[in-house]
Amino acid sequence: AAPEEGINALDALIRLFLDLQRLKHRLPREVRMPGVIVEGGRRANIVPERAVGRFTLRARDLATLRRVESAFRRAARAAGRATGARASIRSLDHPYAEMVTNRAMAEVFKTELRRLGRRTIDTPRDRMGSLDMGNVSHRVPSIHPYVAIAPRSAPLHSAAFARRAGGPAGRAGLMVATRALALTGLELLRDDGLLARARRELGAFRRRRGLRGGA
Q1: How many CA atoms lie within 13 A of 129 on its CB side?
Q2: Is the pLDDT of residue 133 over 80?
Q3: pLDDT of 150 higher than 80
Q4: Which of 13, 43, 132, 160 would be 51's cystine partner, CB 3.0–4.6 Å?
Q5: Between the CA of residue 42 and those of 38, 39, 83, 88, 117, what are the distances in Å?
Q6: What are the structural domain ranges in the chain?
Q7: 202 burial class (0-12, 13-18, 19+ CB within 10 angstroms)?
Q8: CB 64 within 8 A of CB 80
């Protein structure tokens, strides 16, 4: 046995993690590249011939995401070359486009929320969650509003938030959101001018992006 002559795939994967930390300083602040090691060898005294990592790439818009993906692929191949390993990269999901909020529809939804006794906040929150509705919003006028069921300080994806979502506050929020969305849809059906404004707004966005089709 000559383990010192083996190519350690785990070394290459760890190097990629370190290189990504340095790469982040050259990318937009909101870019995220979290990853985990899902396979790194079976025994400490055996040089791993295979190591597998899984990464999620996030950016503010699809154009930036494509640049981030290219940078990630270059970093992975460079980590392989530096250690003598070979990098194989496979995409597991289709990319999500950024959510495009239709302001004409959003204003109607805000009005309906106020009629239902809810206070509205129009300040965008700087969060980087994944949302497949973003793809839909590039094709048809869309909104993805949030209705509060907990204080703004409450952490999402926590046990405390889950309890509120399944309790009276969650049910009350669901009813308010459902009514406001239904009333927004009703206004779009009743007001041809509103529907036309919503479509013009999306059309202007698509022209700026050089996109074809859409509502």
Answers
A1: 8
A2: yes
A3: yes
A4: 13
A5: 12, 8, 20, 20, 59
A6: 3-83, 103-209
A7: buried
A8: no
Amino acid at 183: L
Q: Which residues have C-beta within 8 Å of that of residue 55, sequence separation ≥ 6?
A: 33, 34, 35, 72
Token duo for residue 112: 């309906």
Determine if residue 202 is left, alpha or beta; phi over 0 gives left, psi from -120 to 50 gives alpha, anything else beta.
Answer: alpha
CATH 3.30.70.360 fits 3-83, yes or no: yes
| pLDDT at residue 67, as a whole number | 95
What's the chain look like in SS3?
A: CCHHHCCCHHHHHHHHHHHHHHHHCCCCCCCECCEEEEECCCCCCCCCCCCEEEECCECCCHHHHHHHHHHHHHHHHHHHHHHCCCCCCCCCCCCCCCCCCCHHHHHHHHHHHHHCCCCCCCCCCCCCCCCCHHHHHCCCCCCCCCCCCCCCCCCCCCHHHHHHHCCHHHHHHHHHHHHHHHHHHHHHHHCHHHHHHHHHHHHHHHHHHCCCCCC
Instruction: Say yes or no to pLDDT of 80 above 60.
Output: yes
The mean predicted confidence, pLDDT, of the chain is 91
* Position 203 confidence tier, pLDDT thresholds 50, 70, 90: very high
pLDDT of residue 121: 80
CA distances from 147 to 115, 172, 174, 184 (A): 14, 10, 8, 15
CB 40, CB 48: distance < 8 Å: yes
